[in-house]
């Protein structure tokens, strides 16, 4: 049997397990990318969001066989970029993080949004984050942080 | 791969479907929530033939592997369909969820399926033996029961090219993003030379399948707006008498009231 081959944060990997395994579990348990959080396993909370070929996807709703040949980015890979630095600075500066559980998903949702729309309106930011739930900080600070990152990081996206 | 097949083309997918006991996997957004044990998936998410939107003489043909995000960005997909699918969950789910998966899941809450019912869409099913074209209304046999052979896959949705321009659509859910429909309604209307030539109404999330009653619709076909107005109460009553709602998290009485209100709003929108 051929392994499932994909690129994780720029590194080629081969997964020998079942094609029906959940991407979320494999990312955390096999590859140790613990920024990917498990909140609901129903595609409702967005804490497990990753970028698959640049597209925001809930990794809890992906079976391993579906990522054969794909490139996956989690915060462990994204944190090496200038874009991440701009988002990190804005989130920290505005205190848009409290417990932090939802933040990896929020950051990747922001990256997905800004890649398509570098200067979003507040409504567009809210739409871009609509699949990511936060239960402590509240959304205003997070929306504000993304707005700031878009302005301060002008040209990065 | 273990417990899965990832064919690169349609023919290969059909051969695997015929030869093995597999569950077709499109976007995964329903299947992975269900997470059935001991299954083997047939991954259809990378088959180019299933990812196209093509317009022919009669139909807008939407491939079963087209995601909702892709369809929203496609100029050939009718506005009514776009309105319904843009309200499915949130962007990360719309990036993965597909037309084929929405159908194959067999739920009466499927937002794209509601539009397929109201538009009288057909489905193109394929197997190694050939193709079968079925009306979407006949494809749904009951809750989670589909007229789909164990060797068949859903290849395309065939939406009529015209007749969806004048519509009324509402989705009632718990919140905006991520909401599963509690009641969804779509109506289409067409008038020509002062007479109603088409009126159709479909109700989602209220019974085992999407509901559409062609015989009740026929009461208003050929009527003028004035004549239809005079029959409005009788028309709504006919729906009320016919519709039996399944129990849900929200009471059947409430959902039925909402259905009748939406039907009334739909008629009012077009002057009835």
Question: Which features characterize this protein?
Answer:
heterodimer, A: 157 residues, Ubiquitin-like (UB roll), DNA polymerase, domain 1, five-stranded mixed β-sheet, B: 272 residues, alpha+beta, Enolase-like, domain 1, five-stranded antiparallel β-sheet, 13 strands, globular
Helices and strands, with pairings:
The complex is a heterodimer of chains A (157) and B (272).
Chain A: E1 4-8, E2 11-15, H1 23-29, E3 49-52, E4 55-58, E5 71-73, H2 75-78, H3 82-93, H4 103-116, H5 122-128, H6 139-152
Parallel strand pairs in A: 1-5
Antiparallel strand pairs in A: 1-2, 3-4, 3-5
Chain B: E1 4-5, H1 10-19, E2 23-25, H2 31-34, E3 41-43, E4 53-55, E5 59-63, H3 68-72, H4 79-85, H5 91-94, H6 99-104, H7 111-118, E6 122-127, E7 130-135, H8 136-139, E8 140-142, E9 145-146, E10 153-160, E11 167-172, E12 183-192, E13 195-204, H9 214-218, H10 225-230, H11 232-242, H12 252-269
Parallel strand pairs in B: 1-3, 2-3
Antiparallel strand pairs in B: 4-5, 5-10, 6-7, 6-10, 8-9, 11-12, 12-13
Helix pairs in contact in B: 4-7, 11-12
């Amino acid at each position: 049997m051929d392994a499932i081959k994909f690129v994780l944060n720029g590194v080629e990997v081969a997964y020998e397990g079942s094609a029906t395994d959940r991407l979320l579990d494999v990312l955390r348990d096999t590859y140790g990318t613990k920024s990917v959080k498990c909140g609901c396993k129903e595609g409702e909370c967005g804490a497990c969001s990753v970028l698959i070929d640049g597209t925001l996807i809930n990794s809890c709703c992906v079976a391993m066989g579906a990522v054969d040949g794909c490139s996956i980015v989690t915060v462990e890979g994204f944190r090496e970029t200038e874009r991440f630095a701009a988002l990190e600075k804005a989130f920290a500066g505005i205190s848009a993080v409290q417990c932090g559980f939802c933040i990896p998903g929020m950051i990747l949702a922001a990256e997905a949004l800004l890649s398509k729309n570098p200067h979003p309106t507040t409504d567009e930011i809210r739409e871009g984050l609509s699949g990511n739930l936060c239960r402590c900080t509240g959304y205003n600070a997070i929306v504000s942080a993304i707005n700031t990152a878009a302005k301060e990081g002008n040209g990065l996206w | 791969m273990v417990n899965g097949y990832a064919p690169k083309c349609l023919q290969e997918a059909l051969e695997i479907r015929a030869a093995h006991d597999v569950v077709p996997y499109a976007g995964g957004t329903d299947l992975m929530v269900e997470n059935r044990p001991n299954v083997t998936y047939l991954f259809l998410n990378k088959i180019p033939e299933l990812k196209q939107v093509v317009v022919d003489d009669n139909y807008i043909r939407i491939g079963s592997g087209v995601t909702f995000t892709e369809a929203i960005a496609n100029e050939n997909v009718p506005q009514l369909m776009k309105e319904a699918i843009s309200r499915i969950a949130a962007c990360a789910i719309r990036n993965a969820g597909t037309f084929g998966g929405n159908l194959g899941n067999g739920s009466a809450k499927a937002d794209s399926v509601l539009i397929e019912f109201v538009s009288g869409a057909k489905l193109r099913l394929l197997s190694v033996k050939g193709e079968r074209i079925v009306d979407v209304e006949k494809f749904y046999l009951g809750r989670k029961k589909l007229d789909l052979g164990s060797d068949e896959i859903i290849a395309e949705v065939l939406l009529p090219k015209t007749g969806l321009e004048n519509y009324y659509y509402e989705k009632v859910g718990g919140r905006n993003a991520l909401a599963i429909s509690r009641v969804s309604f779509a109506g289409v209307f067409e008038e020509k030379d002062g007479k109603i030539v088409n009126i159709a109404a479909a109700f989602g999330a209220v019974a085992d399948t999407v509901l559409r009653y062609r015989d009740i619709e026929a009461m208003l076909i050929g009527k003028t707006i004035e004549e239809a107005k005079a029959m409005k109460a009788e028309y709504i009553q006919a729906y009320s008498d016919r519709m039996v709602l399944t129990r849900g998290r929200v009471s059947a009485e409430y959902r039925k009231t909402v259905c009748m209100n939406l039907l009334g709003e739909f008629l009012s929108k077009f002057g009835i």
